[in-house]
Amino acid sequence: MSRGGQRLAALAARGVPPAGDPRGAAARLRRVLERKVERLTAGGDLDRRQAEELAKIASALARLEGAGYDLRAAAVEVMGRFASFVARREKDPGLCLRLADLMESFLAGLEGEG
Asked: DSSP secondary structure string, 4-45?
């Protein structure tokens, strides 16, 4: 495995989303929202400005989390193209079957992420 491949595998094993993946931003924004809610609610009632600020953060968070569905759709598209590429080039049917099993498991895992 190349150094880049090793690095990506290590990041994936730690659960770090790749660069450009909105899940990392969503996770950070969720932590910001949680801290703000704790801080603001500890003081009692929220004023209108504070409530609007929380609503804006929650809205941005919902958009980022919704982008995960776009990632799954993109993964299906890319996996389909990769399967076609492998089918045209690879002569070993055993390898094609193993790759198909791996791709199916990968896509099933994405479904499980919600």
From this structure: HHHHHHHHHHTTPPPTT-HHHHHHHHHHHHHHHHHHHHHTSS
Cβ atoms of 113 and 75 closer than 8 Å: no
* Alpha-carbon gap, residue 88 to 92, rounded angstroms: 11
CB 65 within 8 A of CB 21: no
Using DSSP's 3-state secondary structure scheme, residue 114 falls into: coil
Please determine, for residue 17, whether its predicted confidence score (pLDDT) is greater than 70: no
- Predicted pLDDT at 80: 83
- Token pair 């910001």 is found at 32
Are the beta carbons of 31 and 39 closer than 8 angstroms?
A: no
Q: What is the pLDDT of residue 32?
A: 86
In the chain, the percentage of residues whose pLDDT exceeds 90 is 1
Residue 73 has pLDDT above 70, yes or no: yes
d(CA 18, CA 8): 8
Tokens 């409530």 sit on residue: 51
pTM summary value: 0.44
